[in-house]
Amino acid sequence: MTGSLAGKILLISGAGSGIGRASARRLHALGAALMLAGRRPGSLRETLPDAQAVVLDHADDAAVAAFARTCPDLDGMLLCAGELLTGSVEGSPLATFDRMIAANLRGPWLLCHHLGPRLRPGASVVLVGSNIGLRAIPDSAAYSVAKAGLHMLARVLALEWAPRGIRCNAIAPGPVHTAMVDSRMAGAGGDPAAALAALSRVNPLGRLGREEEIAELAAHLLGDGSRWTTGAVIPIDGGADAVM
After folding, report:
1. pLDDT by residue (tens digit) across 31-84?
2. Considering the chain, what is the average pLDDT of its residues?
3. What is the 3-state secondary structure (H, E, C) of 187-239?
4. Residue 177 backbone dihedrals phi, psi, to 5 degrees
5. Which residues are 126's β-sheet partners?
6. What 3-state class would DSSP assign to 139?
7. For residues 19 and 47, what is the distance between their CA atoms, to the nearest angstrom?
8. Pseudo-torsion of CA 99, 61, 230, 238, nearest 10°?
9. CA 218 – CA 149 distance, rounded (Å)
10. What is the separation, in whole angstroms, between the first and last Cα of the chain?
11. What are the phi and psi torsion angles at 222 (to 5°)?
12. Structural domains in the chain?
């Protein structure tokens, strides 16, 4: 059961939409003091109007370094920012691969590189990966490779930060019903409702995940109730990784 996060100062990247927004609202309800990072200030204000908003491209080394110089000490980070472009290895241009690495691996790497010294002893960091970084599916090659790298980053950081008592874990969601998913289904042509229904059948529970369910797991990992959990990559995908 997730307990209070009162008194903890947490940074959330990708807080302007989707899992990042839902997580910010949940962590705020649990008492955390939040810094919300993202590229669109209006979206960050919509998430939590009273939270501190930081306009930041997490893949920009100079920008992250500058932010780190003024960032307060942190009790944790939840790194949600990312992006999905589809395509196979042979069919994707190099620009797609570079963009997926920048959005899904370089950005979290830079935040951990520059903000690692700002983490207090006992802090917790959660990286949001993907269950298709655990198992291959068609037409998501560059994204899957980047998320697999992110999972390994969590394990490496768990080792490197252990002497300071700092934990790092990754969570690997399956398909979650977000506004971005609705937009992708609508833009793909055909019947969006049928496409969503098909996506819902990729796990044994037979439904899409909810943003709030991912937020609850993130809150647990950021809290003191998970003090002996580090270096884990945790699927949260309705059982898909277990049986498919």
Report:
1. 999 999 999 999 999 999 999 999 999 999 999 999 999 999 999 999 999 999
2. 95
3. HCCCCHHHHHHHHHCCCCCCCCECHHHHHHHHHHHHCHHHCCCCCCEEEECCC
4. -80, 95
5. 78, 169
6. coil
7. 11
8. -30
9. 19
10. 28
11. -80, -15
12. 9-174+209-236 (3.40.50.720)
Starting from the edge strand earliest in sequence, which strands make up the sheet with 9-13, in order? 52-55, 33-38, 9-13, 74-79, 119-128, 167-173, 233-236
Tokens of residue 53, six digits? 């908003």
Which residue, 181, 153, 182, is CA-closest to 169? 153
176 DSSP 8-state letter: B
pLDDT digits (tens, 9 = 90+) for 116-133: 999 999 999 999 999 999
As given in the structure block, the two tokens for residue 206 are: 């037979």
pLDDT tens sequence across 12-23: 999 999 999 999
Q: How many whole angstroms separate alpha carbon 108 and alpha carbon 111?
A: 5
Q: What is the largest CA-CA distance in the chain?
A: 53
> Which residue do the tokens 């983490």 mark?
119
Provide the β-strand partners of residue 36.
Answer: 12, 53
Which residues does the annotation mark as catalytic?
143
Tokens read off for 204: 């044994």
User: What tokens does 149 get?
Assistant: 């790298």
